[in-house]
Amino acid sequence: MVRVVGENVDVNIYPIDEAKRMARDQELDLVEISPKANPPVCKIIDYRKFLYEKKKKEKEIKQKTQKVQMKEIRMGPNTDDHDFNFKLKHAQKFLTEGNKVKAEVFFKGRSIIYKDQGKYKLLKFADELEDYGKVESLPKMEGKRMIMLITPKKNK
Q: 70-152 sits in which CATH class?
C-alpha cells in the first residue's frame, strides 16, 4: 500500500500494482518521494522532466554565484608616485569588479633594508582604497616580499 499524490490524481492510499497502473495510464512515472512515511508516499510525475528542471535550477544558481578572483599588484619599495597611482587605479577597478587584491612589495638585493618604506607603501595603498575595499590582512613579510590582502566592500 502506498499514498499516491500528483496532478490529475485522487490523493489516496492504493495498492502498489494499482498505483503503477495509474502512472502507466497517464504515460508517466511512479516515483517514491517519502519511503519512511507510513504508508510510503509516491508521486506520479514525468521523471525525465523532473531531472531536467532540477539540473536547470542548479545551473541557474551556479551562474548567479559570483566567482571571486585574486588579482595581484606588485611594486617595489621605491616606486614613484606616478607608478603608484597607476597601480592604484588598477586596484580600484579590480575591487569594483568584486575581485580581491593582493598588494605586494618585492625587495630585490639590498633593497630589503627598506622594509619600513615597503610597509608605508602598502598602508598608503590601503588608505587610498578605503572607499573600494577593506584590508583583510595587514602587511606581513613572506621571504623577500611584503604582502597585504584587500577585499571588496559589499554593494548596498
A: alpha beta
